[in-house]
Amino acid sequence: MTDLATPPQEHTHVPLKHPRLPSSAPLLAAGIAVAASAIVGMTLGWGVAGIGALAIVLHLAGITLWSRAVENARAATDRLVTSLVWVALLVALIPLVSLIWKVITEGANALNGRFLTWSMRNVIGEPGGIYHAIIGTLLITLAAAVISVPVGLLSAIYLVEYGGQSRLAAWIRFLVDVMTGIPSIVAGLFAYALFSIIFGPGTQMGLGGGVALSLLMIPIVVRSAEEMLKLVPADLREASYALGVPKWRTIIKVVLPTAMAGIITGVTLAIARVIGETAPLLIICGSTDSVNFDVFHGQMASLPVFIYSSYTQPGSNPEILKSMAWGAALVLIIIVMALNLFARLAGKFFAPKRGR
Amino acid sequence: MALAGVAIFLTAEGLPGLTASSEDLKGHANFLAYVAPLVFGTLLAAVIALLIALPLAIGVALAVSHYAPRRIAVAIGYLVDLLAAVPSVVYGLWGIAFLGPRLVPVYEWLAAHLGFIPFFEGPASNTGRTIFTASIVLAIMVLPIITAISREIFVQTPRLNEEAALALGATRWEMVRLAVLPYARSGIVSAAMLGLGRALGETMAVAMVLSASGVVTFDLISSTNPSTIAANIALTFADATGIQRNALIASGLVLFVITFAVNFAARAIVERTDQGRAR
Fold first, then answer.
1. Last residue of a domain, one of A76, A105, A134
2. Same domain, residue pair A30 and A155
3. From A237's CA, which of A51, A145, B63, B213 has a CA 20 to 30 Å away?
Protein backbone atom coordinates (compact mmCIF):
# COMPACT_ATOMS: atom_id res chain seq x y z
CA MET A 1 0.00 0.00 0.00
CA THR A 2 1.39 3.24 -1.08
CA ASP A 3 1.40 6.24 1.00
CA LEU A 4 -1.13 8.60 -0.46
CA ALA A 5 -0.53 11.35 1.96
CA THR A 6 1.41 14.01 0.21
CA PRO A 7 3.60 16.24 2.23
CA PRO A 8 1.92 19.55 2.93
CA GLN A 9 3.00 22.15 0.34
CA GLU A 10 4.20 25.51 1.28
CA HIS A 11 1.74 28.00 -0.34
CA THR A 12 2.94 31.44 -1.02
CA HIS A 13 0.49 33.81 0.56
CA VAL A 14 -2.01 35.06 -2.05
CA PRO A 15 -4.10 37.89 -0.69
CA LEU A 16 -7.81 37.78 -1.46
CA LYS A 17 -7.96 41.51 -1.94
CA HIS A 18 -5.72 43.55 -4.16
CA PRO A 19 -4.67 46.88 -2.84
CA ARG A 20 -7.11 49.52 -4.06
CA LEU A 21 -7.00 53.26 -4.28
CA PRO A 22 -9.35 55.03 -1.89
CA SER A 23 -12.74 55.83 -3.43
CA SER A 24 -11.97 59.54 -3.33
CA ALA A 25 -8.82 59.03 -5.44
CA PRO A 26 -10.14 60.48 -8.74
CA LEU A 27 -11.42 63.62 -7.05
CA LEU A 28 -8.19 63.93 -5.08
CA ALA A 29 -6.09 63.58 -8.24
CA ALA A 30 -8.27 66.08 -10.07
CA GLY A 31 -7.97 68.57 -7.22
CA ILE A 32 -4.19 68.24 -7.09
CA ALA A 33 -3.95 68.52 -10.88
CA VAL A 34 -6.07 71.69 -10.95
CA ALA A 35 -4.10 73.27 -8.09
CA ALA A 36 -0.74 72.41 -9.63
CA SER A 37 -1.67 73.66 -13.09
CA ALA A 38 -3.17 76.82 -11.60
CA ILE A 39 0.11 77.59 -9.86
CA VAL A 40 2.16 76.83 -12.99
CA GLY A 41 -0.26 78.72 -15.23
CA MET A 42 -0.39 81.80 -13.07
CA THR A 43 3.38 82.04 -12.74
CA LEU A 44 3.70 81.75 -16.52
CA GLY A 45 0.74 84.08 -17.13
CA TRP A 46 -1.51 81.66 -19.03
CA GLY A 47 -5.22 82.04 -19.61
CA VAL A 48 -7.99 79.89 -18.18
CA ALA A 49 -7.97 77.61 -21.23
CA GLY A 50 -4.27 76.83 -20.89
CA ILE A 51 -4.63 76.07 -17.18
CA GLY A 52 -7.61 73.82 -17.89
CA ALA A 53 -5.77 71.88 -20.59
CA LEU A 54 -2.74 71.38 -18.37
CA ALA A 55 -4.98 70.28 -15.48
CA ILE A 56 -6.62 67.65 -17.69
CA VAL A 57 -3.28 66.27 -18.85
CA LEU A 58 -1.90 66.24 -15.31
CA HIS A 59 -4.99 64.53 -13.97
CA LEU A 60 -4.98 61.81 -16.64
CA ALA A 61 -1.27 61.11 -16.17
CA GLY A 62 -1.50 61.31 -12.39
CA ILE A 63 -4.42 58.95 -11.86
CA THR A 64 -2.99 56.40 -14.31
CA LEU A 65 0.48 56.34 -12.78
CA TRP A 66 -0.87 56.29 -9.24
CA SER A 67 -3.21 53.41 -10.04
CA ARG A 68 -0.43 51.52 -11.83
CA ALA A 69 1.82 51.89 -8.83
CA VAL A 70 -0.74 50.84 -6.22
CA GLU A 71 -3.12 48.58 -8.15
CA ASN A 72 -2.25 46.92 -11.48
CA ALA A 73 -2.07 47.69 -15.20
CA ARG A 74 -5.68 46.68 -15.93
CA ALA A 75 -7.07 48.84 -13.18
CA ALA A 76 -4.88 51.70 -14.41
CA THR A 77 -6.38 51.42 -17.90
CA ASP A 78 -9.84 51.37 -16.39
CA ARG A 79 -9.16 54.52 -14.40
CA LEU A 80 -7.67 56.24 -17.44
CA VAL A 81 -10.76 55.50 -19.54
CA THR A 82 -13.13 56.55 -16.77
CA SER A 83 -11.33 59.86 -16.49
CA LEU A 84 -11.35 60.27 -20.28
CA VAL A 85 -15.12 59.76 -20.36
CA TRP A 86 -15.64 62.44 -17.74
CA VAL A 87 -13.24 64.77 -19.49
CA ALA A 88 -15.15 64.28 -22.75
CA LEU A 89 -18.33 65.20 -20.92
CA LEU A 90 -16.77 68.34 -19.45
CA VAL A 91 -15.32 69.42 -22.79
CA ALA A 92 -18.68 68.88 -24.48
CA LEU A 93 -20.49 71.00 -21.91
CA ILE A 94 -18.04 73.93 -22.03
CA PRO A 95 -19.36 75.33 -25.36
CA LEU A 96 -22.96 75.06 -24.20
CA VAL A 97 -22.33 76.93 -20.97
CA SER A 98 -20.18 79.57 -22.65
CA LEU A 99 -22.68 80.02 -25.47
CA ILE A 100 -25.67 80.50 -23.20
CA TRP A 101 -23.72 82.77 -20.87
CA LYS A 102 -22.52 84.89 -23.78
CA VAL A 103 -25.97 85.19 -25.37
CA ILE A 104 -27.62 86.12 -22.08
CA THR A 105 -25.05 88.71 -21.04
CA GLU A 106 -24.81 90.32 -24.48
CA GLY A 107 -28.50 90.01 -25.27
CA ALA A 108 -29.86 91.33 -21.99
CA ASN A 109 -28.39 94.79 -22.73
CA ALA A 110 -30.41 95.13 -25.91
CA LEU A 111 -33.68 93.83 -24.52
CA ASN A 112 -36.36 96.39 -23.66
CA GLY A 113 -39.91 97.32 -24.56
CA ARG A 114 -38.90 99.38 -27.60
CA PHE A 115 -36.72 96.53 -28.86
CA LEU A 116 -39.70 94.17 -28.96
CA THR A 117 -42.32 96.55 -30.38
CA TRP A 118 -40.47 98.63 -32.99
CA SER A 119 -39.48 97.65 -36.47
CA MET A 120 -36.30 98.78 -38.23
CA ARG A 121 -38.14 100.96 -40.74
CA ASN A 122 -36.54 104.39 -41.09
CA VAL A 123 -34.41 103.77 -38.05
CA ILE A 124 -31.05 105.45 -38.52
CA GLY A 125 -28.31 105.80 -35.97
CA GLU A 126 -30.27 104.55 -32.97
CA PRO A 127 -31.39 101.17 -31.73
CA GLY A 128 -34.60 100.08 -33.43
CA GLY A 129 -36.61 96.97 -32.72
CA ILE A 130 -37.19 93.46 -33.96
CA TYR A 131 -40.99 93.51 -34.10
CA HIS A 132 -40.95 92.95 -37.87
CA ALA A 133 -38.63 89.97 -37.47
CA ILE A 134 -40.71 88.38 -34.71
CA ILE A 135 -43.87 88.77 -36.79
CA GLY A 136 -42.13 87.32 -39.83
CA THR A 137 -40.76 84.34 -37.92
CA LEU A 138 -44.15 83.56 -36.40
CA LEU A 139 -46.03 83.85 -39.72
CA ILE A 140 -43.51 81.78 -41.69
CA THR A 141 -43.42 79.09 -39.03
CA LEU A 142 -47.20 79.08 -38.89
CA ALA A 143 -47.35 78.60 -42.65
CA ALA A 144 -44.85 75.74 -42.37
CA ALA A 145 -46.92 74.12 -39.63
CA VAL A 146 -50.15 74.51 -41.61
CA ILE A 147 -48.55 72.71 -44.56
CA SER A 148 -46.63 70.02 -42.75
CA VAL A 149 -48.94 68.94 -39.93
CA PRO A 150 -51.73 67.57 -42.19
CA VAL A 151 -49.27 66.01 -44.64
CA GLY A 152 -47.13 64.54 -41.87
CA LEU A 153 -50.05 63.28 -39.83
CA LEU A 154 -51.81 61.67 -42.80
CA SER A 155 -48.57 59.99 -43.91
CA ALA A 156 -48.09 58.63 -40.41
CA ILE A 157 -51.67 57.34 -40.32
CA TYR A 158 -51.12 55.65 -43.66
CA LEU A 159 -47.88 54.07 -42.47
CA VAL A 160 -49.36 52.70 -39.26
CA GLU A 161 -52.98 51.93 -40.09
CA TYR A 162 -52.98 51.07 -43.78
CA GLY A 163 -49.42 50.47 -44.94
CA GLY A 164 -48.35 48.07 -42.25
CA GLN A 165 -45.50 45.90 -43.42
CA SER A 166 -46.06 46.38 -47.14
CA ARG A 167 -43.21 47.18 -49.53
CA LEU A 168 -44.52 50.66 -50.27
CA ALA A 169 -44.68 51.56 -46.59
CA ALA A 170 -41.15 50.31 -46.02
CA TRP A 171 -39.91 52.47 -48.89
CA ILE A 172 -41.76 55.55 -47.64
CA ARG A 173 -40.35 55.00 -44.16
CA PHE A 174 -36.85 54.75 -45.57
CA LEU A 175 -37.23 57.86 -47.74
CA VAL A 176 -38.64 59.85 -44.83
CA ASP A 177 -35.59 58.87 -42.81
CA VAL A 178 -33.32 60.04 -45.58
CA MET A 179 -35.35 63.24 -45.93
CA THR A 180 -34.47 64.08 -42.32
CA GLY A 181 -30.95 64.66 -43.56
CA ILE A 182 -31.73 67.16 -46.32
CA PRO A 183 -29.49 70.18 -45.83
CA SER A 184 -31.63 73.18 -44.93
CA ILE A 185 -30.14 75.29 -47.69
CA VAL A 186 -31.17 72.71 -50.28
CA ALA A 187 -34.74 72.99 -48.99
CA GLY A 188 -34.48 76.75 -49.51
CA LEU A 189 -33.16 76.28 -53.04
CA PHE A 190 -36.01 73.90 -53.77
CA ALA A 191 -38.60 76.41 -52.64
CA TYR A 192 -36.86 79.11 -54.66
CA ALA A 193 -36.78 76.92 -57.77
CA LEU A 194 -40.43 75.95 -57.31
CA PHE A 195 -41.60 79.55 -56.91
CA SER A 196 -39.44 80.72 -59.79
CA ILE A 197 -41.17 78.25 -62.06
CA ILE A 198 -44.66 79.08 -60.80
CA PHE A 199 -44.51 82.85 -60.29
CA GLY A 200 -41.63 83.86 -62.52
CA PRO A 201 -37.94 84.15 -61.68
CA GLY A 202 -36.75 85.89 -58.55
CA THR A 203 -39.95 85.60 -56.53
CA GLN A 204 -39.40 86.07 -52.83
CA MET A 205 -42.25 85.75 -50.37
CA GLY A 206 -43.07 84.52 -46.89
CA LEU A 207 -45.03 81.53 -48.15
CA GLY A 208 -41.91 80.22 -49.87
CA GLY A 209 -40.21 80.17 -46.50
CA GLY A 210 -43.15 78.19 -45.19
CA VAL A 211 -42.77 75.66 -48.01
CA ALA A 212 -39.02 75.33 -47.42
CA LEU A 213 -39.44 74.90 -43.67
CA SER A 214 -42.26 72.40 -44.10
CA LEU A 215 -39.94 70.28 -46.21
CA LEU A 216 -37.65 70.10 -43.18
CA MET A 217 -40.53 69.66 -40.77
CA ILE A 218 -42.54 66.90 -42.47
CA PRO A 219 -40.07 64.07 -41.78
CA ILE A 220 -39.88 64.97 -38.10
CA VAL A 221 -43.67 65.10 -37.80
CA VAL A 222 -44.07 61.79 -39.66
CA ARG A 223 -41.54 59.96 -37.53
CA SER A 224 -42.83 61.20 -34.17
CA ALA A 225 -46.50 60.74 -35.09
CA GLU A 226 -45.76 57.24 -36.39
CA GLU A 227 -44.07 56.27 -33.13
CA MET A 228 -47.02 57.60 -31.15
CA LEU A 229 -49.65 55.86 -33.28
CA LYS A 230 -47.75 52.59 -32.92
CA LEU A 231 -48.04 52.91 -29.16
CA VAL A 232 -51.86 52.86 -29.30
CA PRO A 233 -52.84 49.39 -28.04
CA ALA A 234 -54.33 47.07 -30.66
CA ASP A 235 -56.99 46.10 -28.10
CA LEU A 236 -58.57 49.55 -28.42
CA ARG A 237 -58.80 49.25 -32.21
CA GLU A 238 -60.18 45.73 -32.04
CA ALA A 239 -62.76 46.72 -29.45
CA SER A 240 -63.91 49.45 -31.78
CA TYR A 241 -64.05 47.11 -34.79
CA ALA A 242 -66.00 44.60 -32.70
CA LEU A 243 -68.65 47.24 -32.12
CA GLY A 244 -69.01 47.57 -35.89
CA VAL A 245 -67.27 50.94 -36.21
CA PRO A 246 -65.73 51.50 -39.65
CA LYS A 247 -61.99 51.93 -39.90
CA TRP A 248 -61.89 55.67 -40.65
CA ARG A 249 -64.15 56.38 -37.68
CA THR A 250 -62.02 54.20 -35.45
CA ILE A 251 -58.97 56.19 -36.45
CA ILE A 252 -60.64 59.56 -35.82
CA LYS A 253 -62.48 58.68 -32.61
CA VAL A 254 -60.20 56.14 -30.96
CA VAL A 255 -56.66 56.14 -32.31
CA LEU A 256 -56.03 59.86 -32.71
CA PRO A 257 -57.36 61.00 -29.31
CA THR A 258 -55.29 58.32 -27.59
CA ALA A 259 -52.12 59.41 -29.36
CA MET A 260 -52.89 63.14 -29.22
CA ALA A 261 -50.47 64.00 -26.41
CA GLY A 262 -47.53 62.46 -28.19
CA ILE A 263 -48.47 64.02 -31.51
CA ILE A 264 -48.70 67.51 -29.99
CA THR A 265 -45.31 67.00 -28.36
CA GLY A 266 -43.82 65.86 -31.66
CA VAL A 267 -45.27 68.76 -33.63
CA THR A 268 -44.06 71.30 -31.08
CA LEU A 269 -40.57 69.84 -31.14
CA ALA A 270 -40.61 69.95 -34.93
CA ILE A 271 -41.61 73.63 -34.82
CA ALA A 272 -38.83 74.33 -32.33
CA ARG A 273 -36.40 72.63 -34.67
CA VAL A 274 -37.31 74.66 -37.78
CA ILE A 275 -37.99 78.04 -36.18
CA GLY A 276 -34.27 78.73 -35.94
CA GLU A 277 -33.49 77.80 -39.55
CA THR A 278 -31.74 80.60 -41.36
CA ALA A 279 -30.41 79.42 -44.67
CA PRO A 280 -33.68 78.68 -46.50
CA LEU A 281 -35.25 81.95 -45.37
CA LEU A 282 -32.21 83.90 -46.48
CA ILE A 283 -32.80 82.63 -50.00
CA ILE A 284 -36.55 82.54 -50.36
CA CYS A 285 -37.79 85.26 -48.01
CA GLY A 286 -35.09 87.89 -48.30
CA SER A 287 -35.17 90.52 -45.60
CA THR A 288 -36.78 93.89 -45.08
CA ASP A 289 -36.92 96.56 -42.44
CA SER A 290 -40.70 96.91 -42.48
CA VAL A 291 -43.46 94.97 -40.84
CA ASN A 292 -45.07 92.62 -43.37
CA PHE A 293 -48.20 90.73 -42.41
CA ASP A 294 -48.82 89.29 -45.87
CA VAL A 295 -47.15 85.95 -46.48
CA PHE A 296 -48.11 86.03 -50.16
CA HIS A 297 -46.42 89.28 -51.16
CA GLY A 298 -43.05 90.84 -50.71
CA GLN A 299 -39.96 90.09 -48.72
CA MET A 300 -40.35 89.15 -45.12
CA ALA A 301 -37.92 89.54 -42.24
CA SER A 302 -37.34 86.78 -39.73
CA LEU A 303 -35.34 86.52 -36.52
CA PRO A 304 -32.53 84.25 -37.76
CA VAL A 305 -32.04 86.25 -40.95
CA PHE A 306 -32.10 89.45 -38.92
CA ILE A 307 -29.37 88.09 -36.63
CA TYR A 308 -27.30 87.03 -39.62
CA SER A 309 -27.60 90.18 -41.68
CA SER A 310 -27.24 92.65 -38.84
CA TYR A 311 -24.10 90.94 -37.58
CA THR A 312 -22.39 90.36 -40.91
CA GLN A 313 -23.56 93.55 -42.69
CA PRO A 314 -24.01 96.04 -39.88
CA GLY A 315 -23.76 99.10 -42.11
CA SER A 316 -22.95 102.48 -40.59
CA ASN A 317 -23.63 101.69 -36.94
CA PRO A 318 -21.93 98.34 -36.31
CA GLU A 319 -22.03 98.57 -32.50
CA ILE A 320 -25.77 99.15 -32.29
CA LEU A 321 -26.69 96.50 -34.82
CA LYS A 322 -24.33 93.91 -33.34
CA SER A 323 -25.84 94.36 -29.91
CA MET A 324 -29.29 94.08 -31.50
CA ALA A 325 -28.20 90.81 -33.12
CA TRP A 326 -27.35 89.43 -29.68
CA GLY A 327 -30.70 90.62 -28.36
CA ALA A 328 -32.50 88.89 -31.22
CA ALA A 329 -30.48 85.73 -30.56
CA LEU A 330 -31.60 85.81 -26.94
CA VAL A 331 -35.25 86.23 -28.00
CA LEU A 332 -34.90 83.36 -30.48
CA ILE A 333 -33.37 81.04 -27.88
CA ILE A 334 -36.09 81.96 -25.39
CA ILE A 335 -38.76 81.09 -27.99
CA VAL A 336 -37.09 77.75 -28.78
CA MET A 337 -36.71 76.87 -25.10
CA ALA A 338 -40.32 77.86 -24.42
CA LEU A 339 -41.46 75.56 -27.24
CA ASN A 340 -39.38 72.69 -25.85
CA LEU A 341 -40.80 73.26 -22.39
CA PHE A 342 -44.32 73.44 -23.80
CA ALA A 343 -43.75 70.16 -25.63
CA ARG A 344 -42.75 68.43 -22.42
CA LEU A 345 -45.68 69.90 -20.48
CA ALA A 346 -48.13 69.08 -23.28
CA GLY A 347 -46.96 65.48 -23.16
CA LYS A 348 -47.99 65.33 -19.52
CA PHE A 349 -51.12 67.48 -19.74
CA PHE A 350 -52.82 65.92 -22.76
CA ALA A 351 -51.94 62.38 -21.81
CA PRO A 352 -55.02 60.13 -22.01
CA LYS A 353 -56.64 59.47 -18.69
CA ARG A 354 -55.51 56.06 -17.59
CA GLY A 355 -58.42 55.83 -15.15
CA ARG A 356 -58.49 54.25 -11.72
CA MET B 1 -42.77 62.07 -53.15
CA ALA B 2 -41.45 65.38 -51.92
CA LEU B 3 -37.95 64.04 -52.24
CA ALA B 4 -38.41 63.35 -55.92
CA GLY B 5 -39.89 66.83 -56.28
CA VAL B 6 -36.80 68.38 -54.75
CA ALA B 7 -34.53 66.49 -57.10
CA ILE B 8 -36.61 67.35 -60.18
CA PHE B 9 -36.94 71.07 -59.47
CA LEU B 10 -33.32 71.46 -58.54
CA THR B 11 -32.27 69.72 -61.72
CA ALA B 12 -34.61 71.84 -63.82
CA GLU B 13 -33.29 75.09 -62.37
CA GLY B 14 -29.70 73.91 -62.15
CA LEU B 15 -29.28 72.66 -65.71
CA PRO B 16 -28.60 76.10 -67.22
CA GLY B 17 -25.93 76.56 -64.56
CA LEU B 18 -24.08 73.44 -65.64
CA THR B 19 -23.30 74.98 -69.01
CA ALA B 20 -22.78 78.52 -67.75
CA SER B 21 -20.04 80.54 -69.44
CA SER B 22 -16.88 81.52 -67.65
CA GLU B 23 -17.64 85.19 -66.98
CA ASP B 24 -20.70 84.16 -64.99
CA LEU B 25 -18.64 81.82 -62.86
CA LYS B 26 -16.13 84.41 -61.72
CA GLY B 27 -13.38 83.29 -64.03
CA HIS B 28 -13.72 79.55 -63.68
CA ALA B 29 -13.50 77.65 -66.95
CA ASN B 30 -16.60 75.53 -66.49
CA PHE B 31 -19.00 74.35 -63.83
CA LEU B 32 -16.74 71.51 -62.74
CA ALA B 33 -13.83 73.86 -62.01
CA TYR B 34 -16.26 76.11 -60.17
CA VAL B 35 -17.71 73.48 -57.89
CA ALA B 36 -14.63 71.34 -57.24
CA PRO B 37 -13.00 73.66 -54.63
CA LEU B 38 -16.36 73.99 -52.91
CA VAL B 39 -16.78 70.23 -52.70
CA PHE B 40 -13.26 69.99 -51.32
CA GLY B 41 -13.97 72.61 -48.65
CA THR B 42 -17.25 70.97 -47.71
CA LEU B 43 -15.67 67.58 -47.26
CA LEU B 44 -12.65 68.98 -45.39
CA ALA B 45 -14.72 70.93 -42.88
CA ALA B 46 -17.14 68.07 -42.32
CA VAL B 47 -14.45 65.43 -41.86
CA ILE B 48 -12.48 67.55 -39.38
CA ALA B 49 -15.70 68.25 -37.50
CA LEU B 50 -16.42 64.55 -37.36
CA LEU B 51 -12.90 63.75 -36.12
CA ILE B 52 -13.41 66.18 -33.26
CA ALA B 53 -16.98 65.26 -32.47
CA LEU B 54 -16.87 61.47 -32.65
CA PRO B 55 -14.57 60.72 -29.67
CA LEU B 56 -16.31 63.37 -27.57
CA ALA B 57 -19.75 62.08 -28.49
CA ILE B 58 -18.85 58.47 -27.69
CA GLY B 59 -17.38 59.63 -24.39
CA VAL B 60 -20.52 61.57 -23.49
CA ALA B 61 -22.78 58.71 -24.57
CA LEU B 62 -20.77 56.24 -22.45
CA ALA B 63 -20.88 58.61 -19.51
CA VAL B 64 -24.66 58.82 -19.78
CA SER B 65 -25.26 55.11 -20.37
CA HIS B 66 -22.64 53.37 -18.23
CA TYR B 67 -20.69 55.73 -16.00
CA ALA B 68 -22.81 58.47 -14.50
CA PRO B 69 -25.29 57.91 -11.67
CA ARG B 70 -28.86 57.92 -12.96
CA ARG B 71 -29.81 61.35 -11.73
CA ILE B 72 -26.78 63.03 -13.29
CA ALA B 73 -27.27 61.03 -16.49
CA VAL B 74 -30.78 62.41 -16.92
CA ALA B 75 -29.52 65.97 -16.37
CA ILE B 76 -26.72 65.47 -18.92
CA GLY B 77 -29.18 64.04 -21.43
CA TYR B 78 -31.30 67.14 -21.03
CA LEU B 79 -28.30 69.43 -21.48
CA VAL B 80 -27.25 67.64 -24.66
CA ASP B 81 -30.79 68.03 -26.01
CA LEU B 82 -30.47 71.72 -25.19
CA LEU B 83 -27.31 71.81 -27.29
CA ALA B 84 -29.32 70.38 -30.17
CA ALA B 85 -32.08 72.95 -29.76
CA VAL B 86 -29.88 76.03 -30.15
CA PRO B 87 -30.45 77.51 -33.64
CA SER B 88 -27.50 77.30 -36.01
CA VAL B 89 -27.32 81.05 -36.53
CA VAL B 90 -26.68 81.49 -32.81
CA TYR B 91 -23.80 79.04 -33.08
CA GLY B 92 -22.47 81.16 -35.91
CA LEU B 93 -22.76 84.28 -33.78
CA TRP B 94 -20.94 82.59 -30.93
CA GLY B 95 -18.26 81.22 -33.24
CA ILE B 96 -17.45 84.57 -34.82
CA ALA B 97 -17.68 86.70 -31.69
CA PHE B 98 -16.42 84.40 -28.95
CA LEU B 99 -14.60 81.32 -30.20
CA GLY B 100 -12.69 82.82 -33.13
CA PRO B 101 -10.81 85.57 -31.28
CA ARG B 102 -9.96 83.15 -28.46
CA LEU B 103 -8.38 80.69 -30.88
CA VAL B 104 -6.02 83.24 -32.44
CA PRO B 105 -3.18 82.70 -29.89
CA VAL B 106 -3.57 78.94 -30.34
CA TYR B 107 -3.20 79.31 -34.10
CA GLU B 108 -0.17 81.54 -33.71
CA TRP B 109 1.44 78.99 -31.43
CA LEU B 110 0.63 76.17 -33.87
CA ALA B 111 2.04 78.12 -36.80
CA ALA B 112 5.20 78.93 -34.88
CA HIS B 113 5.90 75.48 -33.40
CA LEU B 114 4.20 72.94 -35.67
CA GLY B 115 4.53 74.85 -38.93
CA PHE B 116 6.37 71.94 -40.56
CA ILE B 117 3.09 69.98 -40.65
CA PRO B 118 1.19 71.08 -43.79
CA PHE B 119 -2.01 71.51 -41.78
CA PHE B 120 -0.48 74.25 -39.65
CA GLU B 121 1.63 75.97 -42.26
CA GLY B 122 0.32 79.44 -41.49
CA PRO B 123 0.60 82.38 -41.61
CA ALA B 124 -1.91 82.28 -38.79
CA SER B 125 -5.14 84.19 -39.30
CA ASN B 126 -5.51 87.19 -37.01
CA THR B 127 -9.30 87.05 -36.81
CA GLY B 128 -9.62 83.35 -36.01
CA ARG B 129 -12.11 82.96 -38.86
CA THR B 130 -10.47 79.83 -40.25
CA ILE B 131 -11.73 76.51 -41.47
CA PHE B 132 -10.51 74.97 -38.23
CA THR B 133 -12.76 77.28 -36.20
CA ALA B 134 -15.65 76.48 -38.51
CA SER B 135 -14.97 72.78 -38.01
CA ILE B 136 -15.02 73.18 -34.23
CA VAL B 137 -18.39 74.94 -34.42
CA LEU B 138 -19.66 72.20 -36.74
CA ALA B 139 -18.36 69.57 -34.31
CA ILE B 140 -20.35 71.16 -31.49
CA MET B 141 -23.46 71.12 -33.69
CA VAL B 142 -23.24 67.46 -34.72
CA LEU B 143 -22.25 66.33 -31.22
CA PRO B 144 -25.85 66.04 -29.94
CA ILE B 145 -26.95 63.87 -32.89
CA ILE B 146 -24.10 61.39 -32.59
CA THR B 147 -24.45 61.35 -28.81
CA ALA B 148 -28.19 60.72 -28.90
CA ILE B 149 -27.96 57.81 -31.35
CA SER B 150 -24.96 56.10 -29.74
CA ARG B 151 -26.49 56.53 -26.29
CA GLU B 152 -29.62 54.75 -27.42
CA ILE B 153 -27.59 51.84 -28.77
CA PHE B 154 -25.30 51.61 -25.72
CA VAL B 155 -28.36 51.37 -23.50
CA GLN B 156 -29.72 48.51 -25.60
CA THR B 157 -26.68 46.30 -24.94
CA PRO B 158 -27.97 43.03 -23.49
CA ARG B 159 -27.77 43.26 -19.72
CA LEU B 160 -26.63 39.64 -19.44
CA ASN B 161 -23.57 40.21 -21.63
CA GLU B 162 -22.46 43.08 -19.43
CA GLU B 163 -23.03 41.16 -16.22
CA ALA B 164 -21.25 38.11 -17.59
CA ALA B 165 -18.20 40.23 -18.37
CA LEU B 166 -18.26 41.80 -14.91
CA ALA B 167 -18.73 38.42 -13.25
CA LEU B 168 -15.59 37.14 -14.98
CA GLY B 169 -13.67 39.87 -13.21
CA ALA B 170 -13.50 42.41 -16.01
CA THR B 171 -13.00 46.01 -15.01
CA ARG B 172 -15.59 48.45 -16.20
CA TRP B 173 -13.54 49.50 -19.23
CA GLU B 174 -12.97 45.86 -20.20
CA MET B 175 -16.71 45.28 -19.89
CA VAL B 176 -17.38 48.22 -22.19
CA ARG B 177 -14.74 47.09 -24.66
CA LEU B 178 -15.84 43.44 -24.69
CA ALA B 179 -19.61 43.73 -24.43
CA VAL B 180 -20.82 47.20 -25.31
CA LEU B 181 -18.60 48.40 -28.14
CA PRO B 182 -18.80 45.28 -30.36
CA TYR B 183 -22.56 45.32 -29.95
CA ALA B 184 -22.80 49.00 -30.84
CA ARG B 185 -20.17 49.19 -33.59
CA SER B 186 -22.53 49.44 -36.56
CA GLY B 187 -24.71 51.87 -34.62
CA ILE B 188 -21.74 54.13 -34.00
CA VAL B 189 -20.80 53.99 -37.68
CA SER B 190 -24.26 55.02 -38.81
CA ALA B 191 -24.45 57.71 -36.12
CA ALA B 192 -21.17 59.10 -37.38
CA MET B 193 -22.44 59.10 -40.95
CA LEU B 194 -25.63 60.88 -39.97
CA GLY B 195 -23.49 63.44 -38.17
CA LEU B 196 -21.35 63.74 -41.29
CA GLY B 197 -24.47 64.37 -43.36
CA ARG B 198 -25.50 67.12 -40.99
CA ALA B 199 -22.05 68.69 -41.03
CA LEU B 200 -21.94 68.60 -44.83
CA GLY B 201 -25.17 70.51 -45.18
CA GLU B 202 -24.77 72.97 -42.35
CA THR B 203 -24.84 76.48 -43.74
CA MET B 204 -25.08 79.39 -41.40
CA ALA B 205 -22.38 78.57 -38.90
CA VAL B 206 -19.86 78.12 -41.69
CA ALA B 207 -21.08 81.13 -43.65
CA MET B 208 -20.65 83.36 -40.61
CA VAL B 209 -17.46 81.96 -39.16
CA LEU B 210 -15.40 81.29 -42.26
CA SER B 211 -13.64 84.01 -44.19
CA ALA B 212 -13.61 82.12 -47.45
CA SER B 213 -11.65 82.69 -50.61
CA GLY B 214 -12.40 79.56 -52.61
CA VAL B 215 -8.93 78.03 -52.74
CA VAL B 216 -7.91 74.41 -52.36
CA THR B 217 -5.52 74.14 -49.44
CA PHE B 218 -4.88 71.84 -46.51
CA ASP B 219 -3.71 74.76 -44.40
CA LEU B 220 -6.22 74.83 -41.57
CA ILE B 221 -5.26 78.00 -39.78
CA SER B 222 -4.53 80.68 -42.38
CA SER B 223 -6.86 83.47 -43.43
CA THR B 224 -7.38 82.05 -46.94
CA ASN B 225 -9.78 79.15 -46.65
CA PRO B 226 -11.68 76.90 -48.99
CA SER B 227 -15.38 77.70 -48.91
CA THR B 228 -18.14 75.11 -48.59
CA ILE B 229 -21.04 74.62 -50.99
CA ALA B 230 -23.73 75.59 -48.52
CA ALA B 231 -21.89 78.65 -47.22
CA ASN B 232 -21.10 79.77 -50.74
CA ILE B 233 -24.78 79.63 -51.67
CA ALA B 234 -25.82 81.59 -48.61
CA LEU B 235 -23.15 84.23 -49.05
CA THR B 236 -23.48 84.89 -52.77
CA PHE B 237 -27.11 84.12 -53.53
CA ALA B 238 -28.44 87.57 -52.70
CA ASP B 239 -25.99 89.30 -55.06
CA ALA B 240 -26.16 86.75 -57.84
CA THR B 241 -28.26 87.33 -60.92
CA GLY B 242 -29.66 85.23 -63.74
CA ILE B 243 -27.40 82.39 -64.75
CA GLN B 244 -25.25 82.74 -61.62
CA ARG B 245 -28.23 81.77 -59.52
CA ASN B 246 -28.72 78.74 -61.72
CA ALA B 247 -25.10 77.79 -61.14
CA LEU B 248 -25.60 78.14 -57.39
CA ILE B 249 -28.69 75.96 -57.57
CA ALA B 250 -26.70 73.39 -59.51
CA SER B 251 -24.06 73.41 -56.77
CA GLY B 252 -26.91 72.90 -54.32
CA LEU B 253 -27.86 69.85 -56.36
CA VAL B 254 -24.33 68.51 -55.96
CA LEU B 255 -24.59 69.02 -52.21
CA PHE B 256 -27.97 67.30 -52.21
CA VAL B 257 -26.55 64.28 -54.01
CA ILE B 258 -23.60 64.02 -51.60
CA THR B 259 -25.70 64.27 -48.43
CA PHE B 260 -28.33 61.96 -49.90
CA ALA B 261 -25.66 59.34 -50.56
CA VAL B 262 -24.23 59.65 -47.05
CA ASN B 263 -27.63 59.49 -45.38
CA PHE B 264 -28.74 56.64 -47.61
CA ALA B 265 -25.66 54.63 -46.65
CA ALA B 266 -26.16 55.39 -42.95
CA ARG B 267 -29.80 54.35 -42.99
CA ALA B 268 -29.01 51.23 -44.97
CA ILE B 269 -26.49 50.20 -42.30
CA VAL B 270 -29.09 50.78 -39.59
CA GLU B 271 -31.69 48.74 -41.46
CA ARG B 272 -29.30 45.87 -42.00
CA THR B 273 -28.33 45.82 -38.34
CA ASP B 274 -31.95 45.82 -37.26
CA GLN B 275 -32.73 42.87 -39.45
CA GLY B 276 -29.65 40.99 -38.21
CA ARG B 277 -30.76 41.60 -34.68
CA ALA B 278 -34.28 40.37 -35.22
CA ARG B 279 -33.16 36.87 -36.09
1. A105
2. no
3. A145
